[in-house]
């Protein structure tokens, strides 16, 4: 892989991480203003999303050093666990939206 491709992948990862940090900051603000199950689930999901991003990257690097079989095992495990943060965030957002509409704000 040449340097320009590596730079493109690195910039893409950086932009994704900046987006994740923005969502985490927004969730922190929400939790500080309205601490309830919905906002806490969104915060936990967004923080876990960032943690899982780092785990996936580092896990891929470590697993690749162990060979193809090790990398495939890691990929399978992460394929099952990877969506968890998004599920938590989505459930929290759904709860928040339902409570928002019930209050007559929508």
UniProtKB/TrEMBL annotation:
Keyword vocabulary terms for this entry: Membrane, Transmembrane, Transmembrane helix
Domain of life: Bacteria
Keyword Transmembrane helix attributed: yes
Annotated TM spans: 6-31, 38-57, 77-101
Name of the protein: Uncharacterized protein
Organism: Flagellimonas flava
Highest classification ranks of the organism: Bacteria, Pseudomonadati, Bacteroidota, Flavobacteriia, Flavobacteriales
């Amino acid at each position: 892989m040449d340097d320009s491709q590596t730079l493109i992948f690195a910039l893409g990862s950086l932009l994704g991480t900046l987006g994740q940090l923005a969502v985490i900051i927004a969730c922190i603000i929400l939790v500080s203003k309205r601490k309830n199950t919905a906002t806490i689930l969104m915060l936990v999901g967004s923080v876990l999303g960032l943690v899982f991003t780092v785990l996936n990257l580092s896990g891929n690097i470590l697993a690749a050093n162990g060979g193809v079989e090790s990398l495939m095992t890691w990929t399978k495990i992460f394929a099952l666990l990877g969506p968890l943060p998004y599920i938590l965030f989505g459930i929290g957002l759904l709860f928040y939206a339902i409570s928002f509409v019930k209050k007559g704000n929508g």
